[in-house]
Here is the input.
Amino acid sequence: MNLNTQRILKKKKSKIGFFHGTLSIIGGILLGYLIMMVFSMYIPGDNAIKIMPSIIVTPIAICIAGLWLLFSKTTIVCILKILLLSIILIFFIKVF
Amino acid sequence: MALENNYIKYLKVSHTYLGIFAIVFFYISTFFGTITVLKPYISTWESPSKHFKLLAKEDINLDVAIPIGLEALNNPTNKIKITLPSFQEKSLSMKYGFSNNVYINPHTNELLNTTNENNLLSTFFNTMHYDINMSQSGQILMGITSIVIIFLTISGIYLWLLNRKKRKRSANFWFRWHKDLSLLIFPYIIVFSLTGAVLGIMLFTASPFAYSVSHGKETNMGKMVRPIIFALPVKIKSSNQPAIMKKYSELYAIAQENYKDLYIRELALFNWKDKNARIVFSGYLKHNRILTGRVNRVNIVLNGETARIVSKRTLDDTHEVSQFLSAFYFFHFMTDEDILFRIFYLFLGVIFAISLVFGLFVWIDKKLPQNKNSYFTIITKLAAAFTVGIIPATTFMLFLYWLLPFDIVNRDTWIIGGFYTMWCFSFLQSVYKKDVLEAVKDFMYMNAIFLIGAVFLHEYKTDMYLWDSFNQSVWDLFYMDLFLLFFGICSYLFANKMDTIKFLDKFKGY
Amino acid sequence: MIKLFIITILLELSLFPHSIVFNALDNEDGTMEIIGMLSTGQNTEGANFQLISLATSKVIYEKRIPETGSIVVDIPKEAYKMVLDSGSGHVKEKKGEIEPLEGFQKVKKQNSNFTFYIPLVVSLLFIFSALVLQFLRIKKN
Here is the structure.
């Protein structure tokens, strides 16, 4: 990674950059879906009880995940948040 | 609830820019959604064949009306669906399988001639509400916008809670009203944005949940959930032994007697005139409309020959998820609710639309002083045409509907084209008139002309004047004409008095 | 995993808006079989099927789908489109791909649909005029 990119990713920003904003949106959607996918696996009951509540709660999960990603001091923190949580959640989905 | 200053800035900026994105689509959805609250009444208003009084179910002669409908459908014997008259559809409607409906006047038991009636206006308003006339991609876009509105609600409430400690009243008029109106109707916003998100996009993108629940084996959510919540009745095959069916009225009375709390909305006939004939009486519970809505109807099934009760589906027989969905959708569709509930929603819709517009003005007010003579000024003209100009464009459709003869070629295209043309014309008008308030005055005058013209043309062409609909107790038609006339007169008076209204001084200079 | 996520989101069918599909199969004897069904596999009995001439917009053939879910029709001699009306405003259209053995006859096109273009052109003219007017006003200031 060259010096310029490093500076951009690690710089503390007083404004939301376009990249940070877009990342929060895409990351929010990804994490929202992954969180509810894990939840739906553990809800006790038949398929309808597992799936339908997840469908309804996912929009709220997307918004909360997006907010959490928005509150990142630097872009690299935002990327790390997405990567870390995605890996943990995908691990849960694949293994259990 | 302390938050870093930077994060507060991020919250404000994200609320602003996502708000601008959302308002473009959600304002249209709110505007047409508010109109769609009156869908049953608009549908009656635009269909001359349905200008008759609503008949109580007990007074309908099913034994005469149903055979007429069956004959019009070429006497099918299976999967026949009969919808009883209600405020939503005053005629008795019948279909079989996926056929088109045939409609019967319950007073005269005659087939209605609905050749030139395709519910253009009510369907168009509903379609604009949920997909801006762009089919599935429009529906998904509306779903995405609904999710954005949920984010705006959460971020807006968060900002409000953060600010409460300071207890400092904002000097900005637009901001105060945007915040206060939105907080006032917060439950309404959450209900519609959440149901909108589920209906618009979540049902289309539910395969990840099917994947995780089935551990990777299945991705079609419908296949996994449908058989559970929409448990299909056991298919009874035809015995090929003809039988004489009991009278429809007799079967109806037996069904109602054995299921007193059931408000019967529909009848369905299977294997009719056979020994294994079934008649299903379905509807909602009179004392529990919320849990027995459109997606969770209860029913009683009788044998068509013997009138023996075959089965009875009560609320306890329905799945919890169906009950939940019924309640969830109830607050969005209010299918079985009549005028009072709808007027309440109409009122909330208007408040929400105003709140959205004021939110936009918070941003315009901030940006305009720095961009007085730049291209940014087109935004205020666009905003006026988009938010207020849409009103005369819609009423122009009502006017055109009754102005144009019913038998001209491509009538629907002319009427819908007229809507878009008038909307674009309102943009030209708001640019031409340097002051936005002058343009709004013109919009209100046009609105008055179109509405009064539409009511007059409607009454003249259907030969059903206000006093006729009053005397014949066709209340939905009477109140619809009255409401449109009242709205037209109010628009005229408002346009006349605009210069004297002090509140409107806030819009000067835009 | 992500690819599956994206693809299934874009392509998968959902719970409530089950779609209606219909297909035409060439019997290679001058006829074709029309099969109408829901995405769940149920047939579309009762739905109204029409063959409409592309040139004249006239209905060449019309019949309701029977209980079997399919009908056999003669392949039209002129270019056509297939329309399946499954009630409640759900109409599906498809351009007719199957040609008769001797190919389509040429039929003079009638009634070009200008109706769509007139409001479109007028609307675009209004928008363009508004933008030009505002642009000139800004330039003047």
Summary: The CA atoms of residues 408 and 414 of chain B lie 10 Å apart. The two ends of chain B are 38 Å apart (CA to CA).
